[in-house]
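User: Please run a holo structure prediction.
Assistant: Happy to. Please share the sequence and the ligand.
User: Here you go; the ligand is 6-O-phosphono-beta-D-glucopyranose.
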Amino acid sequence: MVKTSKFPADFLWGGAVAANQVEGAYLEDGKGLTTVDLLPTGEDRLKIMTGQVDHLEPQPETYYPSHEAIDFYHTYKEDIALFAEMGFKSFRLSIAWARIFPNGDDAVPNEAGLQFYDDVFDELLKHNIEPVVTTAHFDVPVNLVKKYGSWKSRELVTFYERYVRTIFERYKDKVKYWMTFNEINMLLHLPFVGAGLVFQPGEDKNQVLYQAAHHQLVASALAVKACHEIIPGANIGCMLAAGAVYPYRSHPDDVWKAMEKDRESFFFIDVQSHGEYPHYAKRFFKDNNIYIEMEKEDEEILKNNTVDYIGFSYYSSRCASTDEDILQKTGGNVFGSVKNPYLKTSEWGWTIDPKGLRITANQLYDRYQKPLFIVENGLGAVDNIPEGDMVDDDYRIDYLNQHFLEMAEAMEDGVDIIGYTSWGPIDLVSASTGEMRKRYGYIYVDRDNDGNGSLKRIKKKSFDWYKNVIRSNGASLEE
Ligand code: BG6
């Protein structure tokens, strides 16, 4: 193992959240309803996330965790003060599109929504924390789903462009790091979450998915263009739900399957980073009878507006096989990965593979040769609060420590990593399950799965641990 004080002095240590998982205040100050506001807890959640949606209005007697979340909308000052106490250099958050354009197609933006993020950015900058902003993290204004079918429609490109131009203009003096769509490849796995897609009976699912993907890819490129025009010197990246896919066996069939699975995700980043559809897409579209409708200027838009860096989340590596006997799925994994017999899993069945972070980072850097930003990683676990308000989360410290060592190895391999923001530095609503008990934070939030609790914030043991890591710039890590 290398010495871990190899992180550059300006390394962007920090944490990451998404608007819908922390803010709450779901209709306050003029915000419109977004797709995530329709995701309940319980078994219906997955069904809706995959695009089987019966209602586009919240239902009575149903609990929706995003509606109040952890109330960050009202507590952001205290929460940011805690991040500052840990020494955060950066904080990744998303802007809720429907706070700025409540219906998505409004002619003028909502001033109260714009003011809220102004206040949040001012608070961060006051503490010398660099804001890293995702323009869309799993949310679409519901009105755009109702009226236009969301990203199925080309018109979304226009509305999204208007939205991003508005926020770039407004925050151009405050925000220098931007990201377009969170985990853009999630559109294939959870289409309602990734793109507000609702499937109608008889629709060709693959056709709908890839047409919507094309619209997001063009929209993303137009956001890059707008960002570069409006904020010279800013960095704007893409965001991939990453995790290298390993072949389960050395059989060529499994090796090929793993390659296909990797390409399923790389497809998006190949377009965003190389500026054109990859060669393998042609055959994939042909074999699956997919026809992408494009405007004549699209190819040029994609070509001329590639991203500055590659943002990615890493929770797990994945594993692929063609052998029916081993196609026993890993629980809780939307990517449908086969269980890797060499690795342990979390309480939610997510594979834990620190070395996979080094492998994934090397793979991405080999492929794109652009700076990488690890914008999500962490362990979702149940934390118990014993007497005396102390959460002893050694398991989380151990998980992070191992991942940081592998991140340092990747940098030693020559991979350019500009920062690391761990997921959910403060406990927040789980995206996949809607639970609160799946906790990632250094800061505990007193709230349960049913919305009970004081919302009080309590530092966990990992709070001081992460503070030390940042203060020592990684030298405090245990090898
Ligand atoms: C990523 C998302 O997929 O994983 C986050 O960008 C999400 O929004 C995170 O919260 C962890 O997943 P979960 O389901 O444990 O919240």
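The chain is about 40% helix and 15% strand.
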